[in-house]
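Researcher: Let's try something more involved. This one mixes different molecule types, so please make sure each is placed in the same coordinate frame as the others.
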Amino acid sequence: MKTQIVSMDEKKIDMEMLRKAGEIIKKGGLVAFPTETVYGLGGDALNEESSERIYRAKGRPSDNPLIVHICRIEDLAPITAQVPDAARKLADAFWPGPLTMVLPKSDRVPGATTGGLDTVAVRMPGHKVALAFIEAAGGYVAAPSANRSGKPSPTLAKYVTEDMDGRIEMIIDGGEIQIGLESTIVDLTEEIPLILRPGYITKEMLEKVLGEVRVDRAVLEDGSKQPPRAPGMKYRHYAPKGELTIIGGAQERVVDEINRRTRSMQEKGEKVGVIGTDDTVAGYLADSVKSAGSRKEETTIARALYRILREFDEEGVTVIYSESFDASEEEGIGQAIMNRLLKAAGHRLERI
Ligand code: TXA
Ligand code: MG
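Model: All components are placed in one shared frame. Result:
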């Protein structure tokens, strides 16, 4: 299959091209598109065969449910069995935006889209190209992140092309993604809303709207010990090819320790990569040293993380050390960054 690649800016939306993209979806085809979190791999959420094609294109197990993307709040009711008050409040507060809600599904959503579950995950993305594309596609677009299963989610279209060229009909290149980590997922079928995946919308932000909110224990623990509620969180995700270890502790000691380990790995013939920050990168001795950004601005770190993991793969790095990004007092997106980093590291975190 020949994959058509088209470029589109949020400021200059090409309606003609989006109509074409929408037609592809309506015919059961697949189109990758930008959202504010990561690139998505879209298919018709109400068409069983489209969802099966998504799983095949990603190489993803089909028990791992897809998120249904909508472009109008009114479109929530037809795909859910009922819309609880909490969902309306969250939609008013955070949609369009990086929040996914899990709700009981209606019969219109095929089991192939929800991995056989009787719940459906829904989100209305905060990206103009995404919203216009969903509308052109008929209103319901199932979209996982547009990476091959096991690779970091794409934050640049070139990574979508790397993973999906020849497997899907079209890729819409919308440039670099804003947030860089996938949406927050909150399960509203529980008595107390439960965060299944942390993201840009934090527990504190949800609590301001809903009152008490809990976080699934599997979020910051080793998923193999505590089975997670979001089926997708149990797979080893975001894995770089190099073996990644996170080193936590006081800044100066961490730099010294990583340099000590770097030397010993280099003696063994390994190619070493380091993930540091603007304040520390000058002090590292590794073959490839990258700054994730500034600790004072965690959003820069969120945006850079997946790109850095992919770059290490491209450079053939075999061993990676990362500084730790422990969730700070004012939690912010720190918890989401650490959640993804721990998964990429297979939970190898050493505190010194
Ligand atoms: O930001 C995002 O959410 C991106 C963009 C493209 O919108 N999408 C994304 O999709 O991250 P994906 O498929 O990579 O991750 C979806 C996660 C998986 O962990 C899946 O198990 C969980 O959502 N999920 C989907 N439906 C669910 C349901 N009904 N109940 C519990 N978890 C669900
Ligand atoms: Mg994903």
